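re: the backbone from monday

yeah here it is again, tokenized this time
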């Protein structure tokens, strides 16, 4: 026993000499300080020269500067703005106190407390096991080993309960946030306005899926990564205060504050890296999905090489950014490891060794036996080292907090855009005022001057929509695109039920723009528009939309089976009207589910869309070249049937065969003028 104690004393003596040399050797101190200083200088220099060099997007500058001139990426930091944004999101993902989310937050907190106490028990039990081995006390060894075996199940259950609680909490956070965002995104035509009217968000799908998921996972993980070290620090500090005095825990907390200030300053670019990374990932996904959507057209053009160039360029921009991010994190990781891990452990060693080195009056270790001295050292030392590691984990959690700031900025930006669009507010690059004609210098009011003044005064949403059944009336309504390009200065005409109108004119004259304003997809810049509600106006494009679902869903879209209002036999008659009754048998019944966009031919798709029109029986229907793939006899029957069931038509077509089904014509000349008149018996347009 004496030889064992002698060897242990020799080890302690060598360790003490090493600690003293480390603290007194100026060369070692200077070398350590110089290393940290060199790395710090490299990080600052890298940030200023390379960290945010411009990478031009293949898709253009999708995320444009705000009114204040700063991009979203430059505003990301762990500051008051970040905490305000986070608070907004927390009120959504945790909707109240008496909710399952709060219950899981409490469960995770309780599990973290239990896990910390388990760590303390494991430390004490491990020390007791080592003491019995050193003392060669076999009976005591069996007792403490039995306690350890008995704790297998509680320890495993607590660890896995913590993991389950965090996963469920993240899942509930994502569910609540998704429900909130999709309620905004699918409110009215917001999903259309995000990509067609507003230019602040380039890839809403990336934000709604990947960014929301990563934000919720980051919040849940950060809750654990911050709560566990804080609990460890509190519990270990309380226990250490009685063992080595309050100075030890206070020293560790002081180091926590100092290191936190240093690393928070260095980590600021991580949030901006996160924002830009998600934006570039969204662009890369968009380019890939675009290739899938337009695969047939690209194949006909043999455009695979051109598309490969675009894909490679988009991917290389993403890779360049990821590599820059990795290089920055590499340098920062070295500083993180030194400050948060090794320096924290070093401070812990100095603090725990102080009571053992002190001699004189009040030295409580002077009369202790070797085994008691070693047990007390292991208990205090390991608790303090664990506390130092907890301090290190808390400091490193700041890195995750900075990353969370990036996700928070992205999600709250989406929320702001959706809120604005639901209020009728959108931001888009407008036609430059300098492109408008100058006013007369002599103060006279020419016709051109009046037009220029009116163009400068146009504002989105300045017009009025009046609800009235069986009439469509334009009164001084300018035909203006969302970016301010004026196609028609003032539209004035009226269409009542039964007045079927043929709309014609060259490409780009405003035909589609007229229908987008009628459908309330675009804002009105002035005048009064009188029309029925949106449900009484139906639009059928040249390439009809086919929903995911059954054959029945294709005819009754956007209604569902439980709100269909008729039987399948009655629905079958609508397919018979367009000569598609054979589809029910061919596809295996009304409940058959297929990829209808791929299964049906072009003519069948257009006839399904007409069957959908007959089913809904709106007051007005906009037919945009919707029978171009249908034979003339079937086309004639469908137009006659629309008139029989009281559907008034707005038809865009260049086919000569259709003019006889209409009584009026709205003709655009493509130069800002139009004419609305009754069709004479001998007139026709198209070919």
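seq for it, each position gets an aa:
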């Amino acid at each position: 026993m004496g030889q064992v104690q002698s060897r242990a004393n020799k080890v302690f003596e060598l360790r003490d000499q090493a600690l003293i040399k480390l603290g007194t050797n100026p060369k070692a101190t200077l070398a350590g300080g110089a290393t940290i200083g060199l790395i710090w200088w490299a990080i600052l220099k890298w940030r200023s020269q390379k960290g945010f060099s411009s990478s031009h997007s293949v898709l253009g500058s999708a995320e444009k500067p705000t009114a204040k001139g700063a991009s979203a990426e430059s505003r990301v930091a762990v500051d008051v703005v970040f905490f305000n944004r986070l608070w907004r999101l927390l009120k959504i993902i945790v909707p109240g106190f008496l909710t399952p989310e709060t219950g899981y937050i409490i469960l995770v907190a309780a599990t973290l407390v239990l896990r910390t106490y388990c760590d303390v028990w494991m430390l004490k039990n491990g020390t007791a096991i080592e003491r019995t081995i050193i003392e060669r006390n076999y009976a005591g060894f069996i007792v403490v080993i039995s306690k350890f075996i008995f704790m297998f199940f509680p320890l495993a259950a607590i660890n896995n309960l913590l993991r389950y609680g965090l996963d469920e909490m993240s899942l509930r956070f994502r569910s609540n946030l998704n429900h909130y965002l999709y309620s905004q995104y699918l409110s009215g035509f917001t999903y259309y306005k995000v990509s067609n009217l507003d230019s602040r968000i380039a890839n809403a799908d990336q934000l709604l899926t990947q960014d929301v998921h990563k934000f919720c996972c980051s919040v849940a993980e950060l809750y654990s990564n911050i709560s566990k070290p804080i609990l460890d620090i509190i519990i270990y500090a309380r226990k250490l205060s009685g063992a080595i005095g309050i100075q030890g825990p206070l020293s560790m907390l002081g180091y926590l504050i100092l290191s936190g200030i240093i690393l928070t300053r260095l980590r600021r670019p991580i949030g901006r890296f996160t924002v830009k990374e998600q934006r570039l990932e969204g662009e890369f996904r968009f380019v890939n999905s675009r290739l899938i959507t337009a695969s047939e057209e690209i194949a006909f053009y043999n455009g695979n090489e051109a598309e490969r160039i675009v894909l490679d360029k988009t991917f290389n921009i993403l890779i360049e950014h990821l590599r820059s991010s990795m290089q920055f994190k590499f340098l920062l990781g070295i500083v993180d490891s030194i400050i948060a891990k090794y320096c924290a452990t070093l401070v812990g060693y100095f603090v725990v060794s102080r009571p053992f080195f002190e001699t004189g009056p009040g030295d409580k270790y002077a009369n202790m036996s070797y085994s008691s001295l070693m047990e007390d050292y292991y208990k205090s030392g390991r608790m303090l080292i664990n506390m130092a590691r907890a301090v290190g984990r808390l400091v490193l959690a700041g890195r995750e907090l900075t990353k969370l700031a990036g996700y928070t900025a992205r999600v709250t930006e989406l929320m702001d855009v959706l809120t604005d669009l639901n209020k009728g507010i959108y931001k888009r690059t407008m036609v430059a005022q300098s492109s408008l004609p100058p006013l007369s210098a002599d103060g006279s009011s020419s016709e051109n001057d009046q037009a220029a003044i009116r163009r400068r005064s146009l504002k989105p949403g300045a017009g009025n929509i009046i609800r009235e059944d069986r009439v469509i009336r334009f009164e001084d309504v300018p035909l203006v695109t969302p970016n301010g390009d004026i196609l028609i200065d003032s539209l004035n005409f009226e269409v009542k039920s039964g007045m079927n109108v043929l709309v014609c004119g060259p490409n780009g004259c405003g035909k589609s723009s007229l229908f987008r304003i009628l459908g309330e997809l675009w804002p009105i810049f002035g005048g009064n528009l009188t029309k029925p509600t949106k449900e009484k106006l139906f639009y059928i494009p040249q390439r009809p939309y086919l929903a995911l679902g059954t054959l029945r869903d294709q005819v009754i879209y956007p209604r569902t089976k439980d709100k269909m209002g008729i039987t399948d036999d009655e629905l079958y008659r609508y397919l018979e009207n367009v000569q598609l009754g054979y589809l029910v048998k061919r596809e295996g019944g009304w409940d058959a589910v297929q990829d209808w966009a791929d299964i049906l031919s072009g003519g069948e798709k257009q006839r399904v869309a007409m069957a959908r029109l007959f089913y809904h029986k709106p007051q007005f229907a906009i037919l945009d070249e919707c029978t171009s793939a249908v034979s003339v006899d079937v086309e004639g029957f469908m137009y006659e049937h629309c008139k029989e069931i009281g559907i008034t038509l707005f038809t865009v077509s260049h086919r000569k065969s259709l003019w006889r089904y209409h009584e009026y014509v709205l003709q655009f000349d493509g130069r800002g003028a139009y004419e609305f008149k009754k069709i004479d018996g001998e007139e026709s347009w198209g070919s």
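The mean pLDDT is 79. The first strand starts at residue 464 and ends at 467.
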